[in-house]
Amino acid sequence: MAYDKITPPTDGEKITIQDGKLNIPDKPIIPMIEGDGIGRDISKATRRVLDAAVEKTFGGQKKIVWFDVYAGEAANEKYGEWLPKDTIEAIREFIVALKGPLTTPVGGGFRSLNVTLRQVLELYACVRPVKWFKGVPSPVKHPEKMDVVIFRENTEDVYAGIEWQEGTDDVKKIIDFINSTYKLNIRSDSGIGVKPISVTGTERLVRKGINYAIERGRKSVTLVHKGNIMKYTEGAFRDWGYKVAAREYPDQTISEQELWDKYDGKMPEGRILVKDRIADSMFQQVLTRTNEYDVVCTPNLNGDYLSDACAAQVGGLGMAPGANIGDYIGLFEATHGTAPKYADKDVINPGSLILSGCMMLEYLGWQKAADMIYAAIEKTIENKTVTYDLERQMDGATKIGTSEYASKIIENMA
Ligand code: NAP
């Protein structure tokens, strides 16, 4: 692949796809978008932590070979555009990438860079694991009960961006068409948005959730929807989700209905329970029956709200990792924004990007290195040496900066 303004490193190798699986070399080239604002602080800290864990775990036999690629303000300076083709092609070619937060320029019909990346690379699953680390301040009594992995559909639903503005000729045409064809009475001063949810989009998302549950020995997959009201979109999501489980995983899954009809509610060995919950009820359930939920699959909008609500229970966005994943490509990223007021001050919590980096290590199959970081973060927090966001909520904690926090995590690696 010929790039315009970047050159891939020569001391690493490409991740490839073989027999439908990723083939990970010992020294994979990983493109990295540093990100804008605090992205600069957290990316440096994250690379140091990941490199140290990989070095300590594999004694130099494995290594990440970073490849700097550009998006956002840095890309605008280098290329005169916010999301250059080089960057998209590098992620496509090298398959696994890490990314800091990006500014979305305000105004003028500018599409979010994050949304564009997800769409052009067909990253249809937004994956957000939410788990508590001992010592992290939380607004609930039992944050340790939360251990969910949310698979949120990324390409459909009201987020697909199909909208017409109130008062325009286009919206008038659509309202007239619907009102006259279906004998409805949509007010003429309405804006209109379209909510597509397809069999294709639902099946590939739920399949990914079930595969994850099988690989990780998880107990259940919950389909979260608002199907009691939106029957042909959200309700269909639930139905298609159950169908893909029954059709493709008949020996590995069991539905709640089947569990009661055939097994009197007693889970048979080695099966994953597939259940569904209506979205409003789910928001209560994650508070009141937290540990009954495990892998969660949901359309876009429910997943947006639910991910942040769950993250709040375990200490907020500074500790919430995420990834956008397609059939093979995985783009691992911080879930928060660029927090410009803290940019280049070396104060912000790099936890979200470090944990996203851990998800990336797991995706590469380097679980031991990820586990080493999880344990080191926990120890650092237990020692109460933390960044300002955690320090202000903890009694007797010592406030340290971003780079020092990364150093403490590295020191605490066993
Ligand atoms: P934000 O950057 O996430 O920051 C909002 C607040 O969240 C911060 O002021 C800070 O709160 C807290 N926070 C964020 N990251 C933190 C961290 N690592 N550690 C501790 N606290 C953290 O949201 P925003 O101000 O709404 O958005 C700023 C820019 O980011 C916008 O241009 C937006 O488009 C962009 N954005 C990008 C992404 C992405 O790239 N994925 C996501 C969201 C937003 P306190 O001040 O209370 O400490």
How would you describe this structure in keywords?
41% helix, 414 residues, 17% strand, alpha/beta, two-stranded antiparallel ribbon, 17 strands, 14 helices, binds NADP nicotinamide-adenine-dinucleotide phosphate
Strand content: 15-25%
Average pLDDT confidence is: 95
**What best-fitting shape do the alpha-carbon axes yield?**
globular
- Spatial order of strands in the largest sheet: 4-3-5-15-14-6-7-13-10-12-11
Provide structural commentary.
The protein has 414 residues and is an alpha/beta fold. Helix content is 41%, strand content 17%. The strands form 4 sheets. It has an 11-stranded mixed beta sheet with strand order 4-3-5-15-14-6-7-13-10-12-11, with helices on both faces. Helix 1 runs parallel beside helix 14, helix 6 crosses helix 7 and helix 12 crosses helix 14. The relative contact order is 0.16. The mean pLDDT is 95. The structure holds NADP nicotinamide-adenine-dinucleotide phosphate. NADP nicotinamide-adenine-dinucleotide phosphate binds next to loops.
What is the gist of this entry?
The chain is α/β, with parallel strands linked by helices. The chain has 14 helices and 17 strands.
Task: Write the SSE topology.
Layout (H helix, E strand, L loop, with lengths): L15 E3 L2 E3 L5 E5 L5 H20 L6 E5 L3 H7 L5 H10 L1 E4 L13 H8 L4 E7 L15 E7 L9 E2 L4 H14 L9 E2 L5 H17 L4 E6 L5 H18 L4 E3 H8 L8 E7 H10 L6 E4 L1 H14 L7 E5 L4 E5 L16 H13 L3 H16 L2 E2 L1 H4 L6 E2 L2 H10 L3
Parallel strand pairs: 3-4, 3-5, 5-15, 7-13, 10-12, 10-13, 11-12, 16-17
Antiparallel strand pairs: 1-2, 6-7, 6-14, 8-9, 14-15
Helix pairs in contact: 1-11, 1-12, 1-14, 6-7, 9-10, 11-12, 12-14
The structure holds NADP nicotinamide-adenine-dinucleotide phosphate (NAP).
The site of NADP nicotinamide-adenine-dinucleotide phosphate (NAP) has 16 residues, from loops.
